[in-house]
Write a structure and sequence with these properties.
single chain; alpha/beta; Purple Acid Phosphatase, chain A, domain 2; 3 domains; 8 helices; 26% helix
C-alpha cells in the first residue's frame, strides 16, 4: 500500500486469499477497507478476485467478505466464478481486466477452459486463483497443485498479463506474448516457506512487452531451536516453558525440537497441552517436534505436535488431495470448514 501510494500505479490487483478465512474478524474487515480507501482516494483503481480462503463453501452461497469493497465503491470485485470483465482507459490506451473467483464447488476444474477475452483492447489482463501445471512450477505445499489446475496453453489468446494467486511461493514465467506472474503470499505462514523471500509484483505493461519487478517485503521472523531434556532437571514442563519464554514474540514463527532420553514417568509428566496453550499466545505459529526424544531406550515416532487447528486442517487437506470424486472432495471441504470454525471458537 505504501509503495503504491508513493508510485501511483494505474491498477492495484489482488488475486485472491485477501483474508485467511471466509469469515474474518471485524477488525480485519475494517483494516482492509481503510487501506483500500487510501488507494481509491489517490485515484488508484483496485480489482480483486476471491481465492479459496475467501470463497464460501456452501453450495449456492456467493457472498464474500471482500464484496464489501465493491459495496463501498472502493474496488471492482470480480466475485463470480463465471468470467467477469472491467474496462479501463489510461493515457489513451484501452485496458480490460477479466477474471473469475476460485471454483470452490469444482476444485479440480480448469478455471481457464473455454475462456475468451476482448481482443479489441490494447492490453488484456486476466486474473485467476489457481495452480499452474508445468513450466517448472511447484508449490511449497504439494496438495495445492490439484486445486483449480491449468496449463500455460489454456491461457486465452490475447492475454498480455496473467495475474495469479494461490501458490505461496513466487514465480514468473512467459508463454508466447503472455507474462505469467504469481507474487506468492506477502508473508511467511508456515515452515514450508522458511527459505522464501516475500515480495509483491510491480508491473509495467507497454508496447514492447511486460516488465516485472519483485519489490521485497519485510517478513515475520522464523526461528528453530532444540532443547535437550535432562532426567534430573525437575519439572520438565517448566523447563520447556522457560526455554520458550526466552524466544517469546507474538510475530515469530517458532519451532522447538525436544531431545533426550526419559523414563515413562518423566515423559508422562510432560504436559504438552499446557505447552501448546502457552505457545499459542507466545508466538504467531508454533511447532513442537519430539521425534528426538526416546523413552527408556525406545524411540517416539510421534513427530511434530501441531495446534488442534493446524493438525485438523492438515489432516483434512491431505484427505482432500487424495479424493477420487468431486462429491467426496466437496464433502471433505465442508467438514474442514465446519471443523475449523468450531476449533477457532473453542480456542477463543
Amino acid at each position: 500500500m505504501e509503495y503504491s501510494l508513493k508510485e501511483e500505479p494505474d491498477l492495484f490487483l489482488m488475486a485472491g486469499d485477501i483474508f485467511d478465512k471466509k469469515s474474518p474478524s471485524n477488525e480485519s474487515r475494517v483494516f482492509l477497507i481503510r487501506e483500500v480507501r487510501k488507494l481509491s482516494e489517490a485515484g488508484i483503481n483496485v480489482v480483486a478476485i476471491g481465492g479459496n480462503h475467501d470463497m464460501p463453501r456452501t453450495p449456492g452461497a456467493t457472498s464474500m467478505a471482500i464484496d464489501a469493497l465493491s459495496g463501498a465503491g472502493l474496488a471492482t470485485v470480480l466475485s463470480s466464478t463465471e468470467v467477469q470483465s472491467q474496462a479501463f482507459r489510461f493515457d489513451g490506451k484501452s485496458v480490460v481486466v477479466s477474471g473469475r473467483s476460485y471454483l470452490t464447488q469444482s476444485e479440480n476444474q480448469n478455471p481457464l477452459r473455454g475462456v475468451t477475452v476482448d481482443k479489441g483492447a490494447d492490453y488484456n489482463i486476466f486474473m485467476v486463483h489457481g495452480s499452474l501445471q508445468g513450466l517448472g512450477v511447484r508449490p511449497n505445499t504439494p496438495e495445492m497443485a490439484a486445486q483449480n489446475p491449468f496449463y500455460a496453453q489454456d491461457i486465452p489468446d490475447g492475454v498480455d498479463y496473467l495475474a495469479m494467486g494461490h501458490f505461496h511461493n513466487s514465480f514468473e514465467r512467459a508463454h508466447g506474448r503472455c507474462r505469467i506472474v504469481n507474487p506468492g503470499s506477502v508473508e511467511r505462514l508456515d515452515w514450508s516457506e522458511f527459505d522464501d523471500k516475500k515480495a509483491f509484483a510491480w508491473v509495467d505493461l507497454n508496447e514492447s512487452g511486460c516488465d516485472v519487478d519483485f519489490i521485497p517485503l519485510e517478513m515475520r521472523p522464523m526461528e528453530s531451536s532444540s532443547l535437550s531434556l535432562n532426567r534430573n532437571a525437575g519439572d520438565l514442563t517448566k523447563v520447556v516453558r522457560e526455554h520458550l519464554a526466552q524466544s517469546r514474540d507474538p510475530e515469530k514463527l517458532f519451532r522447538l525440537g525436544l531431545e533426550g532420553s526419559l523414563n515413562k514417568d518423566e515423559y508422562g509428566k510432560l504436559n504438552f497441552g499446557d505447552l501448546l496453550n502457552y505457545a499459542r499466545d507466545a508466538f504467531f505459529d508454533f511447532d513442537l517436534v519430539r521425534d528426538g526424544l526416546s523413552v527408556e531406550g525406545e524411540r517416539i515416532f510421534l513427530g511434530r505436535v501441531d495446534s488442534p487447528e493446524h493438525a485438523f486442517a492438515k489432516r483434512l487437506e491431505g484427505l482432500i488431495a487424495k479424493s477420487a470424486s468431486d462429491e467426496e472432495r466437496r464433502f471433505l471441504w465442508d467438514v474442514k470448514e465446519a471443523g475449523m470454525i468450531l476449533l477457532e471458537e473453542a480456542a477463543e
